Amino acid sequence: MKLELRGITKRFGSLVANDHIDLVVEPGEIHCLLGENGAGKSTLMNVLYGLYRADEGTILLDDHVQAFQGPGDAMRAGIGMVHQHFMLIPVFTVAENVMLGHEATKALGVLDLDAARKRVREISSRFGFDIDPDALVEDLPVGVQQRVEIIKALSRDAKVLVFDEPTAVLTPQETDELMGIMRQLKESGASIVFITHKLREVREVADRITVIRLGKVVGEAAPTATNAELASLMVGRAVELTVHKNPPQLVDNSLVVEGLSVIDPRGQLVVNDVSFEVRGGEVLAIAGVQGNGQTELTEALLGLQPQVRGSITLDGDELVGHSVRRILDAGVGFVPEDRNEDGLVGEFTIAENLMLDRAHGAPFVKAGNVQRGYLAEFAKDKFAEFDVRAPGIDTPVGRLSGGNQQKVVLARELSKDLSLLVAAQPTRGVDVGSIEFIHKRIVETRDAGVPVVVVSTELDEVAALADRIMVMYRGRIVGIVPGDTPRETLGLMMAGEAPSEGAAA
């Protein structure tokens, strides 16, 4: 099915999110919509999917004008959408999620779950998904949950599939599998719109590339375009894609972890006897497939895990057994892996989020009252320093793009007198321009003599930032190797294979 968008314009008050956008996607084509977070990509696709009504413009399918009143109309017309944040009910089975909203019934109004199971098996078999229709969604890995989203769309005979930032929550291995699935869908004749800001993925899978900046189409490119050319189109300037850093200048202050084990609420040993040291002035990057204990390890460093054995000392002071408040007050900066869940309050303003973990005393609060004047000056300073793109410091942080939300988190954490920085997935869901900025600030923190722990599933990021790399597998350390260790070696370590003696750091 051919998709054509003509002159699509969408306004939110004075903000023009989409400005007369034209786009054509041919049958059997993967058309990439590339742009920074906040460029208007998702807004455009929400117009296509019937979630928003365009203020101007026309949607055509096979040259027929469409007038969608909601997502139901779009789905009936053959459009399916795989959202960045999955639209699944965790306590429902795969089959129940697939039939949700399109419930087939038998006699007396009984739900026909057998038909849904059959449909799941048919689509799973066609694309090699190997998904149990009766599995609970909450028990499935993230990559498999995304396949359930794809099955949902295909079960409704979607001919145009929109993938909205589909790799934001996937490991490198799951991303590769998704690329293969997209190629299969393309070969079956589907028209695919692939929304992303990751240059490696674009060049790997796209047939054509349309670049959007500030709500407008600013150019088209072929997959043969270089990363530098694509990045320049995205942000409107030359982007430095390489992290420049001098050899580490180590100082005495350090984080020392000895015999650390973490038991999760289910009684499972998720971090198993882990020991390592991070000196001031270096970045230790923790690599591994998501779910191998990295999250629990970083939470233990912050005092967020209740069942911890072993020792964590920062500049000789024991952290285990102390409250999160005391650990933060010791100068620990924390960038959580899920900024929406653990890093920000969406309804609060940018200014209020900048004082979140320092609202218990001076200089932000005195005698129980927020010092509004001080907060405003501080927020304006960080707003400018971290180049937050928003109308002003009183903007609710939930209205910002992902990259700008992450800048708010970093502005808050890096404005402390730091003795340790722990950054988990620091650029997850962030565009290339913001990645450049975030990496630069992390390196500056390291160069200031602060121990830095970075947790990332992005091997490119690990290689760019790390002075040393610690790989985890099933809660244990597989090895600690130099920052310039080849990707192939790291890949084997992520599968549990210990490094050769020459590779160990």
UniProtKB/TrEMBL annotation:
Pfam families, sorted: ABC_tran
InterPro entries cross-referenced by the UniProt entry: AAA+_ATPase, ABC_carbohydrate_import_ATPase, ABC_transporter-like_ATP-bd, ABC_transporter-like_CS, P-loop_NTPase
Record-annotated ABC transporter domain positions: 3-239, 255-499
ATP-binding found in the keyword field: yes
SMART domains (alphabetical): AAA
Sorted UniProt keywords: ATP-binding, Nucleotide-binding
Keyword field contains Electron transport: no
Top-level taxon of origin: Bacteria
Protein name: ABC transporter
Organism in which the protein naturally occurs: Microbacterium terricola
